[in-house]
Design brief:
Length: 363
């Protein structure tokens, strides 16, 4: 025990915080899994577990762009939609090739991450030359463009492979894909994806959260992460010491987009039907609210804010006439509390005590 304590004291503060984050997420997963196995969680709350995991990944990935990079993005729902529909297409197309659902889900999330990363690169290369409100407007436009493109998308699969068509004119239907008998229509334009086999699980959500945290926290603690934060703090000073501003901004942006794509694939495979309208401007704003209320750059805060604010409307469902009013009041109270210096000092004191910084200072 003494050896563990000495090793714990010898760790850096950031390492202790990261370890505490991993431990907290794992403990929460084990507790919820235990409660679910004992029937202590009703079906309504149980159905929210996978979406909560998806939105946690969305929040921590957006925090990389908004909190660590310091750029305002309003198109995160667009990356989620790219991952969701590409993941659904991959999962439905590989049902015979990969009969094992967990493996097929992993492949679908990887496909969603790759396609979202490609979309992030295509958007980021021109858009990241802009800053502030201009970047927000461009990313917002991207999200709306993606939504409209998916509304025009027709995708089917048969023994010959994928059949894809863009119904720009509005005159095409799923019959124009000329699928063989037994072929599957995966995406039906404005109707979205229908008849999807649900293979998403809470365990997969936990693994995705842990993977996202490991990727983001290791990036932030690395040399590249310090360069990203240097760009955030002072772009001109960063350029003057030889930091490639475009490279590091694009690195953070694409990483954030890829994680959002993986979360979208998990989200899409949690429902039997999915429409592009789900990933609209309001979804991007909702995720941004989670990030802001949790604290910019604070990954643990994003996790807590996402869980609380996602569950709150459901918990208040019995007060149907007033639940959104209560929800709004809670948002205002949290915002006031997180911007109160006295409360911040108390939270910092608790954090220092937990990480042992105060003991090191006395020693």
């Amino acid at each position: 025990m003494n050896g563990f304590q000495s090793k714990w004291k010898g760790l850096k503060k950031t390492t202790k915080v990261d370890f505490a984050t991993y431990l907290g997420v794992t403990a929460a997963f084990l507790i919820v899994s235990f409660c679910q196995s004992r029937g202590m969680i009703n079906s309504s709350m149980g159905g929210m577990l996978v979406p909560i995991c998806c939105y946690i990944v969305m929040a921590v990935s957006l925090n990389l762009t908004v909190g660590i990079l310091g750029e305002l993005s309003l198109g995160h729902a667009g990356f989620m939609s790219v991952g969701a529909f590409s993941g659904v297409i991959a999962a439905m197309s590989l049902r015979e090739a990969i009969p094992a659902a967990p493996l097929r889900l992993a492949v679908a999330m990887a496909v969603g991450a790759v396609f979202a990363a490609i979309a992030g690169t295509l958007v980021g290369v021109p858009a990241l030359r802009l800053r502030g409100d201009y970047l927000a407007i461009v990313t917002l436009a991207f999200g709306e463009i993606i939504k409209e493109l998916i509304n025009c998308l027709l995708v089917g699969h048969d023994s010959k492979g994928l059949h894809i068509a863009l119904n720009i004119s509005g005159s095409l239907s799923i019959n124009d894909l000329h699928l063989e008998e037994g072929g599957v229509a995966i995406i039906k334009g404005a109707q979205g994806a229908a008849g999807t086999t649900k293979i998403a699980t809470f365990a997969a959500g936990y693994v995705l959260i842990m993977a996202a945290l490991v990727i983001i926290l290791n990036l932030v603690r690395s040399r590249s992460g310090r360069a990203i934060m240097a760009v955030r703090d002072n772009r001109i000073a960063a350029e003057s010491v030889g930091i490639n501003v475009t490279k590091y901004k694009l690195m953070a942006f694409v990483t954030s987009a890829a994680l959002a794509g993986a979360a979208g694939a998990l989200y899409g495979l949690n429902y039997s039907s999915l429409a592009a309208s789900k990933f609209n401007f309001n979804t991007s704003i909702l995720v941004l609210v989670y990030v802001v209320l949790g604290g910019l750059g604070n990954m643990w805060g994003s996790i807590v804010a996402t869980v609380v604010l996602y569950v709150l409307p459901e918990a208040l469902r019995e007060f149907d006439n007033y639940r959104m009013l209560v929800y709004a009041i809670v948002l205002i109270v949290i915002m006031l509390a997180t911007n109160n210096d006295q409360i911040k000092e108390k939270l910092d004191a608790v954090r220092r005590r937990f990480t042992g910084k105060g003991e090191e200072a006395r020693g």
